[in-house]
Each structure stands twice: as C-alpha cells, then as structure tokens.
Write a structure and sequence with these properties.
about 325 residues, alpha/beta, Rossmann fold, 2 domains, four-stranded parallel sheet, 11 helices, 9 strands, binds phosphoric acid mono(formamide)ester, binds norvaline
Length: about 325
C-alpha cells in the first residue's frame, strides 16, 4: 500500500503568513486554487491524504463566526491535524497580555495561528512576532480566505476566471477589498458600486488599481449600481453593516437605499450571471430572497469552498 504521508501539497508556501492576497503572486493564487480543487475531489472520492498529521492550528476568534470557525476546524481534522478554538475571553490576551508575548508563546506550541479580529494592525503585529504562519480570518481590511473560496466557486460555475466581469455592490469593506484583489489577480474585470462615503479604503483601492493594471484587467469604482451590473458575469454583495459598525446600522440602511441586489437591479447583467454572498446575509436588505434563494445563487457552494481553499492554505504554509 502506498505511503499516504509521502504525498506533498502542490503549493509550497512554507512559513508564509496569509494576511492579504496582495502578498501572493497570481501564480501562487492559481496554484492554491488548483490544490483546493484536488483536495475537494480527494475528499469526495475518499482518497484524502493526512498531509498535516500531528500538526496543530490555534484559532483566535475575537468576533463571531460560523463558516470560518467550522471550516478551519473540520479542515484540520480532514488533513489529519488538530485545531484549537481560542477565545480571548478565556485567554490572557483578553486581560491585557501583550500580543508579542502571546505570539512568541503560541508559536512554541502551534504549527500555525489563525486570527479573526477587528484590527488589521493587530494581525500584522501578531505575525511580526510569530515564528509560525499567521492566517487572517477577517479583519477590518481584508478577508483573504473568503476571496479564495469566491474564486474557486466562480471557476466551478463558469468554467474559467480570466475574461469574466465581476461586480460588487455595497459597502467598500473587508470582503469587497479581498474580492477585488483576488479578481484582479485572476484576470477578472471588476466594478464596485458604493454609495458616496462608503468607498473602499483609499490605500487598498490604490492597490486594487495597481494589481488590475499589472494583470491587464479593469477596476471601476462608481456610485451607480445599475450601470455597474451591466454585462456582469458575477454579482457579489455583503452585509451593509459589518461587525464593529453596529451603531451605524440605521444610517447605513438609508444610505444604501437602491443598492439591494434584486431582479430589477440585475436586469442588465448577463442572463446566466452568478450571485455570490460571503454570508451571513440579511434577506430584504442587501439582497432579495428571490435572488439569494434563486437559480443564480451559489452561496452554499461558496460557503463549502471555504473548507477546501483553507485546507490548501494550511497544507501550503505549515511546515
Ligand atoms: N463568511 C464568513 O466569514 O462567515 P463567518 O463570519 O460565519 O465565519
Ligand atoms: N463584512 C462582514 C463579513 C462577515 C463575514 C463583516 O465584517 O462583518
């Protein structure tokens, strides 16, 4: 019988952090997607290999999560490793222990650290002091694991990535930032439509434009959702009020009027457009039920793909 542990991951990013997709080349992104596809088919066929036997992932969650927590934990189990859920409520970091000490100590036990927190700077600090890879599981600025799952879902449903047009309607938030970067790296043209005052972070948008230019793709920013969806192959939205912005909810509901993804808004998109949402969703706010629960929607495939892309990331970065 073949030695299963001898099978190596296709992408070698050993020791690398994943804080934003900006740190990865288009080739590395493509290679991670290819490995995710392989891992997905191996899981389905029952031919999976325990690539991370004996390895441990620490998962620090300072914010709520359903998909990220479960998919990372199950992913480590499927790869033969182990995941620990670490709540700041129970850790000394929640009582003020410095991030530096937390990073240095955790790196003595773990093979990788995953963190979800509001502050991207905090994740950068953790990564700077950690001797093991740090994976960003959502900050105020980025959600790279989500964006990889988005690309995999588009590839599965459209049969390709390059040459498509993807449109993001809503808040210029963490999910939007990572999605736009991922699309640019994959050769997908993008347009993002936001109400005035809810544009993407200025520095991130500059990086999006730069990445799009490097990859010969378009990146358009507009306040007109109807115009943005014209000719779209993919339409994406996320909640209008992200975690940490709850006190702005009422103001945002007013500002985002006219930005709901519904049949009327989608009438100028390509007839076979794909609808994506990272979830959790608010039906009747950013998207109508007829769209998210309709034939164009691939949101549950997208959620499933979190598992497969994260397994590829873990296999690639862990020693
Ligand atoms: N999409 C996503 O990150 O979902 P969770 O907040 O449930 O992890
Ligand atoms: N933009 C959302 C994504 C949740 C997965 C938030 O930050 O709350």
């Amino acid at each position: 019988m073949a030695d299963k542990t001898a099978v190596q991951p296709k992408t070698n990013l050993k020791g690398r952090d994943m804080l934003t997709l900006l740190d990865f080349t288009s080739e590395e992104v493509s290679s991670l997607l290819a490995h995710a596809e392989q891992l997905k088919s191996e899981q389905i066929n029952g031919t999976a290999h325990p690539l991370l036997a004996g390895k441990s992932l620490g998962m620090i969650f300072e914010n709520a999560s359903t998909r990220t927590r479960v998919s990372f934990e199950v992913g480590m189990t499927q790869l033969g490793g182990h995941a620990l859920f670490l709540s700041p409520r129970d850790m000394q970091i929640g009582r003020g222990e410095p991030i530096m000490d937390t990073a240095k100590v955790l790196a003595r036990y773990l093979d990788a650290i995953m963190i979800r927190t509001n502050s991207h700077e905090k994740v950068e600090e953790l990564a700077a002091h950690s001797d093991v890879p740090v994976i960003n599981a959502l900050t105020d600025l980025y959600h790279p694991c989500q964006a990889l799952a988005d690309l995999l879902t588009i590839k599965e449903h459209k049969g390709k990535l390059e040459g498509l047009k993807a449109v993001y309607i809503g808040d210029g938030n963490n999910v939007a930032h990572s999605f736009l970067i991922a699309c640019a790296k994959a050769g997908i043209d993008t347009a993002i439509a936001v109400p005035t005052g809810y544009e993407p972070d200025k520095k991130v948008w500059e990086e999006v434009e730069k990445t799009a230019k490097e990859n010969n793709t378009k990146a358009e920013l507009t306040d007109n959702p109807q115009q943005a969806v014209s000719g779209a192959d993919v339409i994406y939205t996320d909640v209008w009020t992200s975690m940490g912005f709850e006190e702005e909810k009422e103001k945002r509901l007013q500002a985002f009027e006219g930005f709901q993804i519904n049949k009327e808004l989608c009438k100028d998109a390509n007839a076979d457009f794909l609808f994506l949402h990272c979830l959790p969703a608010h039906r009747g706010e950013e998207v109508s039920s007829e769209i998210i629960d309709g034939v164009h929607s691939a949101v549950y495939d997208q959620a499933e793909n979190r598992l497969h892309v994260q397994k590829a990331i873990l296999a690639a970065v862990i020693h």
